[in-house]
Design goal:
- The complex is a heterodimer of chains A (about 375) and B (about 280).
- With about 375 residues, chain A is mainly α.
- In chain A, strands 1-2 form a two-stranded antiparallel sheet.
- In chain A, helix 11 packs antiparallel against helix 14.
- Chain A is elongated and about 100 Å long.
- Helix content of chain B is about 35%, strand content about 25%.
- In chain B, the strands form 2 sheets. In chain B, strands 6-7-8-3-9-10 form a 6-stranded mixed sheet, with helices on both faces. A 4-stranded antiparallel sheet of chain B has the order 2-1-4-5, covered by helices on one side.
- In chain B, helix 3 crosses helix 4, helix 3 runs parallel beside helix 6 and helix 4 packs across helix 6.
- Chain B is globular.
- The chains are: A mainly alpha (about 375), B alpha/beta (about 280).
- Chains A and B meet through helix 12, helix 13 and helix 17 of A and helix 2, helix 3 and helix 6 of B.
Amino acid sequence: MGIRRGHQARLGEVIAEKLILAISLSTIAMVFLIFLFVGREAFPVLLGRVSSAAAQEKPLPVEAMNTLTPAQLRAYLGLSAQEFSSMDRDTIQSLMEVRIEASAEEKPSRDAELNTVAWRYLLFPFQWSDYDKPVYVWQPVSGIHKYNIMPLVVGSLKTTIVALLFAVPLSLAAAIYVSQLANPRWKEWIKPAIEMLSAVPSVVLGAFALLVLATALQSLFGYQYRLNAFLAGIALGLTCVPVIFSIAEDALTSVPRSYTQAALALGASKWAAAWQIVVPAAIPGLFAAVVLGFGRCIGETMVVLIASGNAAILSPSLIEPVRTITATIAAELGETVVGGHHYRMLFVLGTLLFIVTFLTNLAGDVVIHRLKGRLEGKK
Amino acid sequence: MSDVFPPRPRPATESGSPPSPEAVQRSIIETEGLSLFYGKAQALKSISLKIQEKVVTAFIGPSGCGKSTFLRCFNRMNDLIDTVRVQGQCRIGGEDILGPDVDVIELRKRVGMVFQKSNPFPKSIFENIAYGLRLHGTRDRKTLDEVVERSLRGAALWDEVKDRLHESALGLSGGQQQRLCIARAIAIRPEILLMDEPASALDPIATMKVEELILDLKKEFTIVIVTHNMQQATRISDYTAFFYIGELIEYDRTTRIFTNPQRKQTEDYVTGRFG
């Protein structure tokens, strides 16, 4: 009979297991739902179902309010049923007048007829009526909303590349030092200190970049614009140093000590053993660290919002202000009309960001598997 | 050595077997009063021992008796542990190796080591062998090819791997990996080869191959081997040192240690009464 009782005792374990499964499934569902939500808001633009053509039909005379049916009138004024029913005749009459005045002020412009959310305006330069050459512009304000995403994409890439160029060598070197060369007493201090950097809120880091780093770098390099891609990149680099460092350090530490010992016993110096044996053996992990660092950089918002200067200029120069995809979403989403073309364009940007990080991680994963296979002797 | 177990009188040297360690004139490793501490704990207690050139010397003793620690003194691998402190003398080829001015890299070139668990690098078979050579400055491809082949032949592995020199060493079997580690160690032509239980993780057939290899290698190298396996010590070694709790209890020709030990502790250990 003793054998049967074990089954009952395991009931608790079964429940715990199912609970954990449910939690992890809900996480997956959450990710999926977020993507669904972002995608749903962006899809109308991607499928070309949204138009931002600003040209409107001619305004109706004020007297039309007497001849139109209430439903037509409500549609013409763009009011909800509730708003419409709460208004008296005078209010509606003044709304009709406002409408006439607004259309009188509107300058007739060929741009107004364009659907600026069409693909060609999103991706390629266009000569708008008051410009003397084709340009890339993100300017979702005033009458004609210009939605060229290239300045933002390039802005994001510029800051991310600067950040990685700054952070990757720094954090990998620190990881190699801490895991292989430092004596244990030093290691106990350095490792938590670097990881503390991830405990600094990015808004604080942004403020530091804006107030201290900007001035320091400007006086050091003497460039014209105080806030620029270079500064934002450095500040961004600081946010991903702890990410890259801690994954790289783990990867290096998990290389078996026996490799190091074998190398030392052959007469390698500590440095040679670390560089020639441990680092190559940890390459998959180091690569993963860099991929995650990239994801962190391109998705980081607050630092770039504060320190980049936020000018949507398309330029190869690193010392000019930039605006990133993330900062644009953060800054503009609050002022858009829900369901409007501006709102949807911001979701297009979000989708773009999602796709970029997804593809990077996917490609990273494939490469890591290959590298691992090569190290383990599988073909 | 304690005086609790007084040595028994020794029989005359049998003809044909190696001379007793005391009679040996040409020793390559000599320690005098070598003590080692891990922090405050003393792991080796004033060990004096002479190891002869081009023979196999086995260190036996129960776990924790200090035999591996003693072995690691010869290539200063104990340096890797921060708290280790060494007293006394250890000379290799007449030169002191414990001083702070000793070039550890040069020492380890002369004193190779094979570990308990095979530890090939996650590189190709060729690169594993070539690593030590490159480390010490050999760049010439032809020399590398020659040394790799010679070392693999020396480790009786050439025929098994010659067609896949550029595949990962981690694809080899456990026994092959251990012989690869031996090949890697002998590639840089050390004078002494330290082996820390080289066959303890291997199956009997792989163990046999490694033992045959050791017997073959002693023509060229001085071999010091730590082993838990007493049959192995009798099969391959010429001299055996028995350690117990940090002390060298007895050191003699292997045949004598196993057939006619002078001290009771040794006898108890080799007959399997403890350990």
